[in-house]
Amino acid sequence: MRYPLIISNWKANGSKTMIIDFIHKLQNNLNNNYACNIIIAPPIIYLDVIKQYLINKDIILGAQNVDIHISGSFTGEISANMLKDMGVLYTIIGHYERRIHHKENNEDIIKKFDILKKNHITPILCIGENKEEKIQNKTKTVCIQQINNIINTLGIEILKNSVIAYEPIWAIGSTSSANPNEVQTLHNFIRSYIAQQNIEIAETIHLLYGGSVNTNNAYELLRQKDIDGLLIGKASLDPKNLSEIIKITQKTKTRN
Ligand code: PEP
């Protein structure tokens, strides 16, 4: 069984004061039996603050981005070996907000995937369709294209132990999340597609859902066999919500 992952993407939110309070509250709210790994991806400048206050080994550090270069004259960028140096084990790539606001393209995402793997950091590859593509019934095609983008350049083996987060663009930061049964069908389709190329690798991949997850919809999503965890934005900024979702994960996934 894949150990579930709960990922908290803070985007450009937080402050030193907020983080200290958040980490204390989160750790106080949790018991010792999570049945999942908890990954916090804060703005990179706060990684060390989080580290200072972490006493819980099940909480893992994540990042929201990485540069395509390893070092050199790239003002403002953070490289994979710097992330590794700071104890980051997971990094989000291909997020819709980076594609839109920072003009990241498929080529960048391939390079980021590759450089993370070479530095032993697990990529969290975001995929998903926009509203129009959903209406046109193109969800499967769009998601497979985004995965093929990686496979066709780097080979199927690169996907071993990776994380793919299905984040329909229309559901991110909105009020409606995707239908859990539809997500299950899609995840099953994606896993079968990868299994056709390599059955062992398909079993190692975590397929997460992200897009307006909250304490009300987490249970129905986590109940699905092929939803191996959640990528959460807004709701995870509140330690009470995040611990509630972790407790739901604990109950739901240990029962499977
Ligand atoms: C995200 O942006 O990764 C995300 C899932 O955001 P939200 O939960 O706020 O929709």
Question: Which helices and strands, and how do they pair?
Answer:
Elements: E1 5-9, H1 16-29, E2 37-41, H2 47-53, E3 59-63, H3 80-85, E4 88-93, H4 96-101, H5 106-118, E5 122-127, H6 131-135, H7 139-154, E6 163-166, H8 180-197, H9 199-204, E7 206-210, H10 218-222, E8 229-232, H11 239-255
Parallel strand pairs: 1-2, 1-8, 2-3, 3-4, 4-5, 5-6, 6-7, 7-8
Helix pairs in contact: 1-11, 5-7, 7-8
Bound molecules: phosphoenolpyruvate.
Provide an overview of this structure.
The structure is a single chain. This protein has 256 residues and is an alpha/beta fold. It has a single domain (5-252), classed as Aldolase class I (TIM Barrel). The chain has eleven helices and eight strands. It has helices spanning 16-29, 47-53, 80-85, 96-101, 106-118, 131-135, 139-154, 180-197, 199-204, 218-222, 239-255; strands spanning 5-9, 37-41, 59-63, 88-93, 122-127, 163-166, 206-210, 229-232. It has an eight-stranded parallel barrel, surrounded by five helices. α1 runs parallel beside α11 (239-255), α5 packs across α7 (139-154) and α7 runs parallel beside α8 (180-197). The protein starts with a strand and ends with a helix. Phosphoenolpyruvate (PEP) binds at residues 9, 167, 172-173, 210-213, 231-235.
